[in-house]
Amino acid sequence: MRIFFRFLVSSLPAVLLSAVTVGVAPASADPGFYDPPSPLPGGGNGDVIKTLPSTYANAKSVRVMYLSRDAGNKAIAVTGTVLVPTKVWGGAGDRPIVAYAPFTAGLGDQCAPSKTMAGEGGDIVSGFQNSFVNALLSKGFAVAQTDYQGLGTPGEHTYVVRAAEAHAVLDVVRAAQRLPGTGLSPKAPVGIAGYSEGGGASASAVELAPQYAPELDIKGAYVGAAPADKAVLAKSLDGGMYVGFLGYALIGLNEAYPEAKILDLANDAGKQLFQEARGTCTMDAVLKYMFRNTTQLTKDGRPVAAYLAEAPFDAIVAANRIGDLKPSAPVLVEHAQGDDVIPYAIGKQLGKDWCGKGANVKFADLFSSPVFAHVLGMTAAQGNAANWLGDRFAGKPATGNCGQF
Predict the structure, then answer these.
(1) Which segments within 119-239 are labelled E, that is strand?
(2) What confidence score (pLDDT) does residue 8 get?
(3) In terms of Cα–Cα distance, which of 134, 129, 57 is closest to 383?
(4) Is 13 a residue whose pLDDT tops 90?
(5) Signal peptide: which range, if any (predicted)?
(6) Which CATH number fits the domain 2-229+321-393, given the four candidates 3.40.50.1820, 3.30.110.170, 3.40.50.300, 3.30.70.1650?
(7) CA 243 → CA 68, 249, 301, distances in Å?
(8) Strand 331-335 and strand 217-224: pairing?
(9) Mean pLDDT over all residues of the chain?
């Protein structure tokens, strides 16, 4: 615990430095922006419903609400931010657009990245989102950042739900391309980048893009520490420091598959945890629920992993496994060997699964520290993602290493 809190203290300067680079949203920001119109307007996936001017250093920033699809293919409204660097694009062709898939921000509406990036809400962890975005902006790329389903907007956030997150990521690029006044081209080259939850969303997006968004000219996707196999995570997270993320996943899956009634498995203590977790951001969830064991939270004392191995939950877990479809674009998959949140073997297996389907995959060990490898791995991931995508946009060939890892 002492090491943990020393980490928090040592992280403060970096987070505060990141925070001061972000402009504070104007006091006149519309508090009703995150409320979708009812009924939703007709239109295509990625069509812009409404916008709200925002501020961000060295970029033109606007919040968007756009049409997307949930895991059941129902039309929904999702919010996000489109950022275009103020500096002129110096590369060949149109300015690229990178879909940034945020890492775990929390479940409370105050945690929505489009809010925290504008200086509203969030927690100590929120500043790291800015660092990832800044690395992309520094290359001259436009950034289209999604909040995902249910963050900011009504309903529960469908945390780590494969289809819902993929759709939100792909549709925010479409929204950026259709947004007037940005100078972005509908034919702009596209990249995708994310870490942790965002790595899973990036991976989901790149493997679903050929079917869901075939018109996007995706040049590559960066996938960092992706939670690709929920069955493994149900065991590895249970009883550990980050067990709150397992609670997040159950809430997200319950929102996407209400007919399965996943949350009905909880006893009174479990129900209280779920109710509280719905209003938390990342750090609050870590501190509140660390080292809880799910055997204390279910009606019959069995761990959550045991339920997820049985019908009907096993089918839901299988449907949300990433790696069963071939990405048509090159992918860089990175994972830290000592990752203390998402086991290293999950990331390596994702790369192998894609290789087995003939995808262009490079897998690399992500440099990190011997403690808090997952969190601190992000500091290397953001630069690696920006540099690797920069090479793809420059037309450099992507060299895979299938069969070598």
Answers:
(1) 142-146, 189-195, 217-224
(2) 39
(3) 134
(4) no
(5) 1-29
(6) 3.40.50.1820
(7) 30, 10, 16
(8) parallel
(9) 92
